[in-house]
Amino acid sequence: xxxxxxxxxxxxxxxxxEGPPSVSLSAPSLADLQSVPTPGPSxxxxxxxxxxxxxxxxxxxxxxxxxxxxxxxxxxCRLDLKQIALHARNAEYNPKRFAAVxxxxxxxxxxALLFNSGKMVCTGAKSEDESRLAARKYARVVQKLGFPAKFxxxxxxxxxxxxxxxxxxxxxGLYAQHGQFSHYEPELFPGLIYRMLRPKIxxxxxxxxxxxxxxxxxxxxxxxxxxxxxxxLKNFRKK
Length: 239
Fold this sequence. Notes:
By secondary structure, this protein is an alpha+beta fold. It has six helices and twelve strands.
């Protein structure tokens, strides 16, 4: 006789074996989805349990300050860059060096890059509202020069924030334990580069305690990234 050993180690005859149990392919229920465990610290770019200790602004009283916002706008028409450079104030154009008109305004204090495709990049604003206002002012300048410009597809591409944790940091120890997410070569650059996964932010961390956060699309990402990194920095505080 030939026998088959099933998953529960029960011996049955080959003639009686009905095959493995069928697998249900029905969609999961809400209860099934709610039972899925929450991702651990490594999913968020933090490979230390202590790194995921909740931290609120009230704990440390530190909130990153926005230093620069980069936004883009589509003006919806082709631009004659030479004409813009000749007739607009505070505009410069050197096609041999860079294929865009560089234009500046004082309020809000920003700089714009205007390309002949009609795309515009606005940098230097300190808030989302300032960035939008400045971009509208540049679009208005282009309209006054006779181009059928429209203000469309405004989008914030990058936000840069900075703060000071007020204590020195052991960058060597931080790099040793978080090498999966960080890069540190003091001979080339004095800061440690930490690439957080959730939110997707790059942090420059300096031994003095200064921290620069970049790569965010909104202010909440910068604040969330700092709340995640602050407990880690406390663990590597210099004695």
